[in-house]
Amino acid sequence: MSTSRHVSPDEIRKGFSKAMSDMYRAEVPLYGALMELVAETNARLLSTDAQLVRQLQRTGEIQRLDRERHGAIRLGTAHELATICRLFAVMGMQPVGYYDLTPAGVPVHSTAFRAVHESALQTSPFRVFTSLLRLELIENPELRAFAQATLEKRSIFTPRALALVEQAEADGGLGSSDADEFIQQALETFRWHHTATVSAAQYQQLSEQHRLIADVVAFRGPHINHLTPRTLDIDRVQADMPGKGITPKAVIEGPPARQCPILLRQTSFKALDEPITFTDTLGSHSARFGEIEQRGVALTPKGRALYDHLLNSVREELGAFPNETNAGRYTQLMAQHFQAFPDDYRSMREQGLAFFRYFVTDKARTTQRTSPDSLDGLIEAGYVDVEPLVYEDFLPVSAAGIFQSNLGDAAQSHYGVNANQAEFEQALGRQTIDELKLYADTQQRSIDMCLNTLLA
Ligand code: OOG
Ligand code: NI
């Protein structure tokens, strides 16, 4: 059992997120520039939008905003995935959601490791989009066997990291100095390597099969390929990026700009071309890119169905993947189709499109209350405030757009296979958590808290 001798997994995650950010800043100079731009933009917006400040104070997001990050890695084998699942568990991160990227021509399926309870998210919302390469999609049998053998030879975890994972599992946690060591050891898995484990010709062959396959197979570890801060105004940051020497992708993924943001909007800039020493000669590889995101309210199954429907209808009408040449038309179609999605929190709540959190107001605490007996009555009377519950996850179509923009359009293949969640979970060694259940639970806990306080 975990005891007070143990550092809480939430604190380990917070320390790890900070260590990761420091490593990435040292390795990727543009990351620092992007962080500054996001911080400036957030500060400017918070100094002018009192309503937003109030909302973020209520939900606590204002305190976590400047340490909010997500990263991404791509793994090669089932064993690596199962082991990283155990490593993330030490930091209180669990696999949430299943994402199939094959419809977009990317030979992976994925989950997001993150904290699941609102109080744990408050301490550190750090998340890692984690993909598993689907080796069975390599058509050439010799190349597939080579990729498999190469991956089986590597160990992406340090012996000490593995020992500390086992210790944490056996003892129910880690003490303070072990937790510090764990953070340093775990970080090694995510580090960039300037040397490859294959020859330049082998790299080339893997790359011709799919750029992503070379990125996974040719290296000693699953380098973190981006680390994304959260902005409160993605359109502003996108517009200001060129002024900082950063060229963003043509369109912002996700929903269009709105008064009341929903789900997740993301944009990225191209991967760096970095020098690599292959086993026989020098060359280069690009994998690491920059990305920013803006988060909005989580949608219920009904809201999500409406989002998916509207997005699909835009993509159908556009008749192509959004790119530089059709970006204007894409933006216009998005704005037009999404008029069908109510853009005020009240309608979204009344129509059951989004999740919310409920809070007892100061008025309820300080005044003599009449006692309405329903939640709606308490809201009407000003005893309960409603705030949007922020979306903590990812979007498959957006993720595909991010992958593609960074791998180059040549990286699109057509795979005749589909989602295989059962196989992914078998590799993972456990089931993934349904994110919709997590949002429903958080919403319900906040309702119970209000009702227990006010109707008791
Ligand atoms: C992951 C891309 C997906 C996001 O934010 O949707 C992603 C990758 O390129 O490995 O990070
Ligand atoms: Ni990302």
Q: What does this protein structure show overall?
A:
The chain has 456 residues and is α+β, with helices and mostly antiparallel strands. The protein has a single domain, classed as 2,3-Dihydroxybiphenyl 1,2-Dioxygenase, domain 1, CATH 3.10.180. It is 48% helix and 14% strand. The chain is built from 20 helices and eleven strands. The protein has helices at 9-27, 29-48, 50-59, 61-64, 78-90, 118-123, 141-153, 159-171, 176-188, 200-209, 211-217, 234-240, 301-318, 327-337, 345-350, 362-366, 375-380, 396-407, 421-428, 435-454, and strands at 69-75, 94-100, 108-114, 127-133, 227-229, 264-269, 273-277, 282-286, 290-295, 356-360, 384-388. The strands form four sheets. It has a five-stranded mixed β-sheet. It has a two-stranded antiparallel ribbon with strand order 6-9. The protein starts with 8 loop residues before the first helix and ends with a helix. The mean pLDDT is 92. Residues 72, 74, 129, 131, 225, 266, 291, 394, 398-399, 402-403 line the site of 2-oxoadipic acid. It comes from Pseudomonas imrae. This is VOC family protein.
Number of domains: 1
Bin the helical content.
40-55%
CATH topology description: 2,3-Dihydroxybiphenyl 1,2-Dioxygenase, domain 1
What does the average pLDDT come to?
Answer: 92
What is the topology, as strand order, of the major beta sheet? 2-3-4-1-5
- Let me know the largest β-sheet: 5 strands, mixed
Count of alpha/pi helices: 20
What is the CATH first-level class name?
Answer: Alpha Beta
What's the count of strands? 11
Bound molecules: 2-oxoadipic acid, nickel (II) ion
| Low-confidence sequence ranges | none
| Computed CA radius of gyration, to the nearest angstrom | 23 Å
**What is the architecture at the second tier of CATH?**
Roll
Query: First CA to last CA: what distance?
Result: 34 Å
The general outline is globular
The fourth-level CATH homologous superfamily is Uncharacterised protein PF07063, DUF1338
Which structural class fits the helix and strand makeup? Answer: alpha+beta
Instruction: Give the strand content.
Output: 5-15%
Organism: Pseudomonas imrae
Protein name: VOC family protein
